[in-house]
Amino acid sequence: MMHWIILPVVLPALLAPIIGFVMRHDITLARIASVFGTGLLLAIALGLAVMAADGSTHVYRLGDWPAPFGIVLVLDRLSALMVLLTALLALIVLVHAIATGWDARGRHFHALFQFQLMGICGAFLTGDIFNLFVFFEILLIASYGLMIHSGGKERIRAGLQYVVMNLAGSTLFLFALGTLYTSTGTLNIADLAARLPEIPAEESSLVRVAVILLMIVFAVKAALFPVHFWLPASYANAPAPVAALFAIMTKVGAYAILRVHTTVFGPGSPGTEDLAGTWLFPAAIVTIAIGAFGVLGARRLMPLIAYSVIGSMGTLLVAVAVFSAPATSAALYYMVHSTFAAACLFLIADLVVTRRSSDALSPQPATVQNGLFAALFFGAAIAMAGMPPLSGFLGKLLVLDAIRQPGQMGWAWSAILIGSLLTIVGFARAGTVLFWKSTATAGPVLDETAELDAAQDLPAPATVAQVAPVMLALAILGGLAIFAGPVSAYLQDTSAQLFDRQGYVDAVLAPVEER
Amino acid sequence: MEIIVASSIGVLTAGGVYLLLRLRTFPVILGLALLSYAVNVFLFASGGLAIDQPPILSKYGDASYTDPLPQALVLTAIVISFGMTAVLVMIGLGAYLEADSDRIDIAQDDDDAQAENERPA
């Protein structure tokens, strides 16, 4: 039973080379293996969530070396939740990619997909910061391949920028790790949390440098304000299912901020008391503004959604920046919601855009199933913008409710509310142009042939398998709203556990039992 | 020795950042390589510099040893940065062959121009 914890890392890691080397000539076999593996991952994630639900912190020691010296994987409620989120999202995205044939448009989609899952699950489960770096690199190197999957000039250019940006971020991560190791002599999260309070405030300048460097690194992953600029181009040009999977990658950054900056640098360590929140909060406010204005200003559908992802990351990080238990549980609710909302939007955009001549927001003749797509887009858009009845509304309400500190309330409330309004306007405009004006412009289709892909010569109606993942994502959003009570009760336990630093430290650094 | 290591890290970083800002694929790759050298040396130095001492605790000689952890970290970091550079070279080559230009910042302009052309008159 103990070895369950490492399975979300080992399973994709074993499956990916098998798919890559054995099944590369048979797409059907690769599809079956990939779906089977992801389904198994979901089952394991469910098992882990049940295991962690009682509030205990499970530690998996690789090679059975005790914690500060060996490498550990740590499973608590937060890790279990994030792994479950990843597995569920991955299954939705995978079914969509298979049903729309995206996976056959380039080589090694399924192998890269599994490697990406391995990196993401590893990042959520790891118990020390250096392995966080290693798993970041694994998920990034897989994402480079997925990002330029199926090729094309624009995509490869955007991919190049994305790679350069992330490599620079990785370098910064290593500098941060070096600084942190110099000042504390350890990189294990629990050990850091135990040692940092012992460092007196006047000797903590190096630690403060490391805190800010780490914050910048995670902000790059989470697309926070000064370092968000890689996101619109790369998400807008990535294949749509890949962009939907990337919805979890920004959350890896948010998770890392939560984990490192609450468990390690949280209140209690004299040198770094409020350092993270002080910088994170204004940056998150500006991020919301950029997201909202980006949604208003976008002239193509995919960048519009990418900017709404930035806006949702801003909302999420505003709640994270408060660094209190209620705000964190609100942030977690919003994190679950915004992951599925963003993925859902990208998948719908894929269904719509592949049936049009381009993804420009200009009136074009209506495609098949205009009404169905309009309804789906409407549902996902109101979820993303935070309108009732879907979970975006409750998520934003929880976030607003959690931020009541006098210095922060005014900024946060006005940013979130005005940002939501602008997002609604942007989405309403996009939906109007895409679905309503298109029914008014009837006429010859063949005046813009330049951008036509071979696949869209004859727009075929979407099959059940193509719509099902979107429907499932929307159903999850609805379910999240209906079961908001139990879910947020669970998330409150989760954030209480996250803020219980001593419990985490004791569980991880506990001496190994004699056998 | 400290001053030599510190200034070499500084020079490598400065050169790397300068090349990174050149916005052409080849200098950017070189710049990232320089940066990764800088960070490797920095990581190596992060456990403290010691001369002529093994990275393991010897039970026969004296108890002095150099910190082994940074060496393990540097090994991992070198492997990763090698792999990443290889990926970057391949993607850069692909972008150059596809687009006939090695600038890495044109895509955005193209997007705007494309959207501009598609707007209704």
UniProtKB/TrEMBL annotation, chain A:
Coiled coil: none annotated. NDH-1 shuttles electrons from NADH, via FMN and iron-sulfur (Fe-S) centers, to quinones in the respiratory chain. The immediate electron acceptor for the enzyme in this species is believed to be ubiquinone. Couples the redox reaction to proton translocation (for every two electrons transferred, four hydrogen ions are translocated across the cytoplasmic membrane), and thus conserves the redox energy in a proton gradient. It comes from the Bacteria. Belongs to the CPA3 antiporters (TC 2.A.63) subunit D family. The chain crosses the membrane at residues 6-23, 35-60, 80-102, 109-126, 132-150, 162-181, 206-231, 238-258, 278-297, 304-325, 331-352, 372-390, 410-428, 470-491. PANTHER family: NA(+)_H(+) ANTIPORTER SUBUNIT D1, NADH DEHYDROGENASE. This is Monovalent cation/H+ antiporter subunit D. It comes from Tropicibacter oceani. NCBIfam families: PRK12666.1 (NF009309). It is a multi-pass membrane protein. Keywords: Cell membrane, Membrane, Transmembrane, Transmembrane helix. Pfam families: Proton_antipo_M. It is found in: Cell membrane; Membrane. InterPro entries: CPA3_Na-H_Antiporter_D, NADH_UbQ_OxRdtase, ND/Mrp_TM. Residues 128-423 form the NADH:quinone oxidoreductase/Mrp antiporter transmembrane domain.
TrEMBL record, chain B:
The chain crosses the membrane at residues 6-21, 28-51, 71-97. InterPro entries: CPA3_antiporter_subunitC, NUOK/Mnh_C1-like. Keywords: Cell membrane, Membrane, Transmembrane, Transmembrane helix. Its main location: membrane. It is a multi-pass membrane protein. Gene3D superfamilies: 1.10.287.3510. It is found in: Cell membrane. Belongs to the CPA3 antiporters (TC 2.A.63) subunit C family. This is Na+/H+ antiporter subunit C.
